[in-house]
Design goal:
It comes from Lygus hesperus (Western plant bug). This is Xenotropic and polytropic retrovirus receptor 1. With 425 residues, this protein is mostly helical. Helix content is 76%, strand content 0%. It is built from 19 helices and no strands. Helix 13 packs antiparallel against helix 15 and helix 16 packs across helix 17.
């Protein structure tokens, strides 16, 4: 992967303008080479003046970028240092309030003056986890910018056949505050030590599991891959069974049309989930950091295989429901209970309030959907725009859900009679 793509994939979106402007610097180099007078026809002095003028412009631009990065890094480092002091103060008070030590009146009064409330231990664990993530992002900012300078100055020397880029790197970049400063590493170590000793009872493995930020391209476990294959294979086999049953099942045209409308919406949602998984695979393969773009939790989000697994499981449920619909007389199941039962299962899964079955991912989706519906009253982000755009592609699903609601809860007389006769059967 080219560095420009790597940089674009791993930057923190809110800090985008604070990173090294690698693309512009690279464009400056190629433009200077392309606009240089021809060595065969031009005067050597003219060629020398051209590159001398460019080098002055280029290194002045490097100075500006270096100053920008140093300033931003210093601001974020100072902010991180203050935040850590606040967290340690809150942790100390929380431990005292919890009974590990008797709080001093002066401690409580000072804390009240600063309008800092004692958090519960669980809240502090979350606060330290979020703070640790911010440190990792700042450390990533450090590394990306230094690598960017190293790459662009190396390219400068290669294209212009000089060593001035290497000298600039040694004299200015390697001595820059953002590169030489080691406070971020120290803060990261202190956070790990604090969380391990104070919040996790000395269990470092548990502490690091809470704090660790997995890489973007982390590989899936064999168990997840196995489940994707198992349920996908089951869905394919059952879908073939559905096709065969539909061909040989005696249905008039009107019944087939009704069946199609009742079962189409859930199938389209299954397809939508699967294609989102394919999208994520494509983004990850191309170096697009969708986790940062969609502002997902880096430690707890669905991968492409998780979405494909969910789509495959829902697909299996869909095929079983349709097979039950076809063979309801043999199974003694009221025929038109199957479609509404399928929709009910999907809605119960999605709106289940208990913290099981991917609760965080479902709750994130519910919140984004609500912001799409109530957009005039909320500040919206990229994820909200993206999901609202996807709704345009799901118009058929909404129309079919309207039909299902009408069929079961309003219905025409003949549909109500058909449903009643099916229930009696």
């Amino acid at each position: 992967m080219k560095f420009a793509e790597h940089l674009s994939a791993h930057i923190t979106p809110e800090w985008r303008k604070q990173y090294i402007n690698y693309e512009e610097m690279k464009a400056m180099l190629y433009t200077a080479v392309e606009e240089a007078p021809s060595m065969e026809s031009a005067d050597p002095d003219e060629l020398t003046r051209h590159f001398k003028s460019f080098k002055e412009t280029f290194f002045a631009f490097c100075d500006t970028e270096l100053k920008k990065i140093n300033t931003f890094y210093s601001e974020k480092l100072a902010e991180a240092t203050r935040k850590f002091a606040t967290l340690k103060s809150e942790l100390s008070l929380a431990m005292k309030v919890a009974g590990k030590a008797k709080p001093k009146l002066s401690d409580i009064m000072n804390t009240q003056k600063k309008n800092v409330s004692a958090r519960k231990v669980q809240d502090l664990k979350l606060a330290f986890s979020e703070y640790y993530l911010s440190l990792i992002l700042l450390q990533n900012y450090q590394n990306l910018n230094f690598t960017g300078f190293r790459k662009i100055l190396k390219k400068h020397d290669k294209l212009l056949n000089t060593d001035q880029g290497a000298k600039y790197r040694e004299e200015y970049v390697e001595a820059a505050h953002f590169h030489t400063n080691t406070d971020i590493g120290r803060l990261i170590t202190e956070v790990e030590t604090t969380v391990t000793g104070e919040l996790e009872g000395g269990d470092r493995q548990k502490a690091m599991k809470r704090l660790r930020v997995p890489p973007l391209g982390e590989k899936q476990t064999p168990w997840t891959t196995f489940k994707v294959g198992l349920f996908s294979g089951s869905f394919i086999v059952l879908f073939c069974a559905v096709l065969v049953s539909a061909v040989y099942h005696n249905e008039d045209g009107e019944d087939l049309k009704t069946t199609f409308k009742l079962f189409r919406a859930p199938l389209l949602l299954v397809e939508f989930l699967f294609l989102i998984g394919v999208n994520i695979y494509g983004w990850r393969s191309s170096g697009v950091n969708h986790v940062l773009i969609f502002e997902l939790d880096p430690r707890n989000h669905l991968s492409e295989q998780d979405l494909m697994e969910l789509a495959a499981i829902m697909g299996v449920v869909w095929t079983l429901s349709l097979l039950c619909f076809f063979y309801s007389p043999d199974l003694s199941i009221p025929r038109y209970f199957n479609p509404i039962g399928l929709v009910g299962v999907m809605f119960i899964f999605f709106l289940n309030p208990f913290k099981v079955l991917r609760h965080d991912a479902r709750w994130w989706t519910v919140k984004v959907m609500w912001k799409c519906i109530a957009a005039p009253f909320y500040y919206v982000n990229f994820a909200d725009f993206w999901l609202a755009d996807q709704f345009n592609s799901l118009v058929t699903v909404f129309v079919d859900f309207h039909y299902i609601f009408y069929f079961y809860f309003v219905g025409a007389d003949e549909q109500a009679e058909r449903l009643t006769s099916s229930v009696k059967a």
